[in-house]
Design goal:
By secondary structure, the chain is α/β, with parallel strands linked by helices. It has two domains: 4-121 and 214-237, Peroxisomal Thiolase, Chain A, domain 1, CATH 3.40.47; 133-210 and 239-387, 3-Layer(aba) Sandwich (Peroxisomal Thiolase, Chain A, domain 1), CATH 3.40.47. The chain is globular, with a radius of gyration of 19 Å. The longest helix has 16 residues, at 22-37. It has 13 helices and eleven strands. The strands form two sheets. Strands 3-2-4-7-1-8-11-10-9 form a nine-stranded mixed beta sheet, with helices on both faces. Helix 4 (89-103) packs across helix 13 and helix 7 (164-178) crosses helix 10 (290-299). It has helices spanning 22-37, 54-57, 63-70, 89-103, 122-129, 145-159, 164-178, 192-197, 260-273, 290-299, 308-313, 330-334, 341-353; strands at residues 4-11, 46-50, 79-83, 109-116, 200-202, 205-206, 215-224, 236-245, 282-284, 367-374, 379-387. The protein binds coenzyme A.
């Protein structure tokens, strides 16, 4: 296997992008990534595009071909593949791209993610997202994603020390980070009171405990480490990529306050990279709801089970803390265009490791991790990246 590096990254702004077409979101992110890498479109051997549900959101399927066409690469007959794993589509697209380069099958590969969710209303959006759960056992009986994560929160708060204020603190921190990120959907600071006074969505989760519905795209360019000198982009090495699965329905899980797929993927990634959680300088985790960040930091090994609330309350996960979590603003404040999120996480870690994150820069960051979840944890992708 060859060593792989990310040599270019690009991301659109996230938000409600009414005047930008689905295909143009991708083109914008892809062009930024190619320019950053110093790569011409014709030099790209393959494309992997993460997308969850363009069929439901914009009535478009056959995304791989559409993207290749509008990227101007249909005439070079590029290999272009859509990757789908619900909200982990981007994380898996990145993994497929890494495998393609590491194996020697391809050299210059673009991994991207795109989703345009706001062309339909909230009801239709929530309905489309519910397809990531078990349709027969969960969706058809009315369980939405806020509802499923609320059940996880209730179980967790019954068993471990986590107050309503601790949950709110996750959102406060992520909005504070989002306020320092020019691409974030929400760039305003909030207080614990903002969260506690916001409307109830699914008890105990309130509006500000939820990630929003978002349009956006992100792209990264990968190359064999031995070829990075041919390009102008500052390279960042891929130290590990791992993926794991679990039962799709929440009621079939061993424990709903732990994502076993996160534990498995993290163990595989740490073992491959010969690293421990203590050596990670920053992590982007899948905070689709505030409870998800608490569970993620425990399952990834940054603290023991039940200590996620304390870690957050004591500022250990904030900028300047022991392990800064979601410096981009996370899904909560940066936004969550589902198919794009896993690639945006890589964009953020690369930006940090290059020292280009401005007001949200983590001092001397050398190793970063991403954690991308599909559904309530039936698919998890974990990647570790490091400075070369
Ligand atoms: N956090 C903070 N503010 C939010 C928000 C969020 N998650 N979602 C919407 N808002 C704001 C909007 O900006 C808007 O503000 P404005 O009135 O100042 O313009 C206001 O709240 C109402 O927005 P609207 O789009 O009407 O909200 P909604 O009630 O239709 O939808 C949710 C809110 C929480 C139901 C929706 O965002 C949601 O379903 N989120 C979860 C998405 C999800 O499940 N993703 C997959 C996870 S695995």
């Amino acid at each position: 296997m060859r060593d792989v590096a990310v040599i270019g990254v690009g991301c659109t702004t996230f938000g409600e992008k009414w005047s930008t077409a689905f295909r143009h979101l991708f083109i914008e992110a892809g062009a930024l990534a190619l320019e950053d890498a110093g790569v011409q479109g014709e030099q790209v051997d393959a494309l992997y595009v993460g997308n969850m549900s363009a069929g439901r959101f914009v009535e478009q399927e056959h995304i791989g071909a559409l993207i290749a066409d509008y990227a101007g690469l249909a005439t070079t007959h590029i290999a272009s593949t859509r990757v789908e794993a619900a909200c982990a589509s981007g994380g898996l697209a990145f993994r497929q791209a890494v495998i393609a380069v590491a194996s020697g099958m391809e050299d210059i590969v673009v991994a991207a993610g795109v989703e345009k969710m706001t062309d339909v209303g909230t009801g239709a959006s929530v309905e489309a997202l519910a397809g990531a759960a078990d349709r027969e056992w969960e969706g058809f009986v009315g369980a939405t994603f806020p509802g499923l994560y609320a059940m996880m929160a209730v179980d967790y708060m019954h068993r471990y020390p986590l107050s309503r204020e601790d949950l709110a603190q996750v959102a406060v921190k992520n909005h504070s980070n989002g306020a320092k990120n020019p691409i974030a959907q929400f760039q305003q600071e909030i207080t614990i009171d903002t969260v506690l006074r916001s409307s109830l969505v699914a008890d105990p989760l309130r509006l500000f405990d939820c990630s929003p519905i978002t349009d956006g795209a992100a792209a990264v360019v990968l190359a064999p480490l031995e070829r990075v000198h041919e390009f102008t982009g500052t390279p960042v090495k891929v130290l590990a990529t791992a993926q794991a699965s679990d039962s799709i329905a929440l009621h079939d899980r061993r424990d709903i306050s732990t994502l076993d797929a996160t534990v498995a993927a993290a163990n595989r990634a740490f073992s491959k990279a010969h690293l421990t959680p203590r050596e990670i300088d920053l992590v982007e985790v899948h905070d689709c709801f505030t409870i998800a960040e608490i569970i993620a930091i425990e399952d990834l090994g940054f603290c023991r089970k039940g200590e996620g609330g304390r870690l957050t309350r004591e500022g250990e996960t904030a900028l300047g803390g022991r392990i800064p979590v979601n410096t981009s603003g996370g899904l909560k404040a940066c936004g969550h265009p589902v198919g794009a999120t896993g690639i945006k996480q890589v964009w953020e870690v690369v930006t940090q490791l290059r020292g280009e994150a401005g007001a949200r820069q983590v001092d001397s960051a050398e190793i970063g991790m991403t954690h991308n979840v599909g559904g309530t944890g039936a698919t998890v992708a974990v990647h570790i990246l490091g400075v070369t």
